[in-house]
Fold:
Amino acid sequence: MRVVVSSQGNNLDAPVSPVFGRCPVYLFVDTETMEWEAVPNPAMNQSGGAGIQAAQFVVNRGAQAVLTGNLGPNAFEVLQAAGIVGYLVSGGTVRQAVEAFQEGRLPYLSGASVGDHAGMGGRSSLTGQRAGGRVDPLSRPSVKEVELASLRERLKSLRQELAEVMTRIEQLEQEG
Structure:
């Protein structure tokens, strides 16, 4: 499974970033092999909309789950729409976060863990609510369930694309 971890550095031993949308680096990690790829966050210095842009970036790069220190509401919505589950990491290294994910020890985010603009140094409207209904450790999906949901979403997209291709082929064949 391909997960992405918001990171402060370029390797598995780097600390996990406490923010998602404005973290310096994303580490994409294959949980089966622990092979990884470090990619600078293109949204880090955006004046606005960093969470949305960052979420779209990790979706486009094939992440199936997000491991991060915090996740804002806009990024959460983009990830949720793509069928990507977020997990809260309370510190440690990227390697430790991935291992905790593999062992099912990370709390599943059922909503944003911070308010708007928290990554910009703004005040979080959810401060103190991290355990107040936003993090739901009891209903956390398993790694297998996350991967199945991701694969089903991908299959749905592929079926739609195939239908469009088949329709276009039929149109071209009819034109002769």
In short: The beta strands are 2-7, 25-30, 36-40, 65-68, 85-88. The radius of gyration is 18 Å. The chain has one domain: 2-175.
